[in-house]
Amino acid sequence: MSNGKRREKGANENIRGGEPKPMKMVEWKLIGELMKNSRRSDRDLSKVIGVSQPTVSRMVKRLEAEGYIKEYTMIPDFRKLGYELVALTFLKLKGSLSNEETQKARDTVKERIKESKFPIVMLERGMGLGYDGVLVSVYENYASYTEHMNLLRTYPFLELSRLESFMISLNDRVRYRPLTLALLAEHVLKTKKNVDTT
Questions:
Q1: Cβ distance 148 to 118 under 8 Å?
Q2: CATH of 3-74+180-197, one of 3.30.1240, 1.10.287, 2.90.10, 1.10.10
Q3: What backbone phi and psi angles, to 5 degrees, belong to 128?
């Protein structure tokens, strides 16, 4: 199977049940190289990580099946695509929700995300700073951000006084470390090497 077809298909297959096998250092290297550039051929990857091309193909297939590799994607220049803002919006659920109301809120969010015209990059629950979740999204301009915030204010299960955002202008010429998985890949490999040598 060609790289493109395998990666397109494999990333969407169901994960097998049970616990995944622990990863070997060579698999960590493969993950790191794919995070830097998922378009690389298995042949190129085999040269970089020091194993045969069929071994790379088998490792990728296993890592996909076990859910270590979730998808293959790229990171565009959002500004060139017409987006001016990235917003991290912190969400707080109303404290008096019953279990039934909490489940209804989850179902409502899942449905509305499918229908949303707003590009939501990530929506996750968590904890910290007194909030229950975070919404990461990109916007064409401040007006589209405001429209989305007004929509969120219609959700009856959100604490409206606790709906706050941290906004990043993509037009700002000063950039410290733009979004890239290559830097994360290097960190993962350094951390893994340090763990393996101790």
A1: yes
A2: 1.10.10
A3: 135, 150
Of 124, 123, 13, 125, residue with least CA distance to 68 = 13
Domain residue spans of the chain: 3-74+180-197, 85-169
Looking at the whole model, is its pTM more than 0.85?
Answer: no
Specify the residue for token string 């490999």. 189
Nearest to 152 by CA among 99, 93, 78, 75: 93
Task: Give 57-114 pLDDT, tens digit per residue.
Answer: 999 999 999 889 988 888 888 999 999 999 999 988 888 778 888 888 888 888 887 7
SS3 sequence of 112-164: HHHHCCCCEEEEEEEEECCEEEEEEEEECCHHHHHHHHHHHCCCCCECHHHCE
CATH 3.30.70.1060 is held by the domain 85-169:
yes
